[in-house]
Amino acid sequence: MSDALLKVAGLHAWYGESHVLHGIDFEVRQGELVTLLGRNGAGRTTTIKAILGLVGRRTGSIQLGGVETVTLPTNRIARLGLGYCPEERGIFSSLSCEENLLLPPKVGEGGMSVDEIYEMFPNLKERRHSQGTRLSGGEQQMLAMARILRSGARVLLLDEITEGLAPVIVQTLGRVIRALKDKGLTIILVEQNFRFAAPLADRHYVIEHGQIVATVHKHEIQSKAAMLHEFLGV
């Protein structure tokens, strides 16, 4: 994949003395959606945190648009066009929904306007004056995603965005992700819910013990179902 927008090679990562990633290799082209699948503790979240420099130490190579980022600080990495939606969402409880939305800085051109975001997430428009603590879990997740869309990020790192949400909210997030992919955004999705991820992704990377142990393309899901069940229990 010589035209990869994001290229990760030989990535090792540590938290203190704990060696979590053991040579991660994968690539993502512009406009693709790939998933990082695996059981809890496999290293999926650490992989996207390592891409952003949010681990204690990392070695290897992480190229974004041809720029080597493994030695860069997190703030400079983000300004290359990365948007991160963490599992814990990070909503500021003392700010209103709209104040949370307007808070992050721009990291690139072409970010969505507030009106465009409200069109995509009507719930947020209705709750725009509500404090962060008064939003439901689903509304907080929508807000966490909406913030990075406003920033102009071209690569979205989404961590367990369906965790604990009602099926109707999960369906809404699925529609939003399809729309973002149609707009040409590049998406890396860490997801436990394979049934949610399967129809969205171009390619699935299965992580076990800090290494990628399998790559499954969209058209291979049925033929590799037994292997996926072995690794994921799906």
How would you describe this protein?
The protein is of the alpha/beta class. It has a domain at 1-81 and 154-164 and 185-234: Rossmann fold (3-Layer(aba) Sandwich). It is built from nine helices and ten strands. The protein has helices spanning 44-52, 74-78, 97-102, 114-120, 122-126, 137-150, 167-182, 194-197, 225-232; strands at residues 4-15, 18-29, 33-37, 57-64, 67-68, 82-85, 155-159, 186-190, 203-208, 211-217. The strands form two sheets. A six-stranded mixed beta sheet has the order 6-7-8-3-9-10, with helices on both faces. A four-stranded antiparallel beta sheet has the order 2-1-4-5, covered by helices on one side. The longest helix is centred in the last third of the chain and has 16 residues, at 167-182. It is globular, with a radius of gyration of 17 Å. The model has no long low-confidence stretch (mean pLDDT 92).
Put the structure in a nutshell.
The protein has 234 residues and is of the alpha/beta class. The chain is built from nine helices and ten strands.
Task: Name the descriptors.
4-stranded antiparallel β-sheet
Rg of Cα set: 17 Å
Could you tell me the CATH topology label of the domain at 1-81 and 154-164 and 185-234: Rossmann fold
Q: What is the 3D shape? A: globular
Poorly predicted regions are none
Overall residue-averaged pLDDT value: 92
- Residue share in helix: 25-40%
Mind telling me which CATH architecture of the domain at 1-81 and 154-164 and 185-234 this is? 3-Layer(aba) Sandwich
Element string (H = helix, E = strand): EEEHEEHEHHHHEHEHEEH
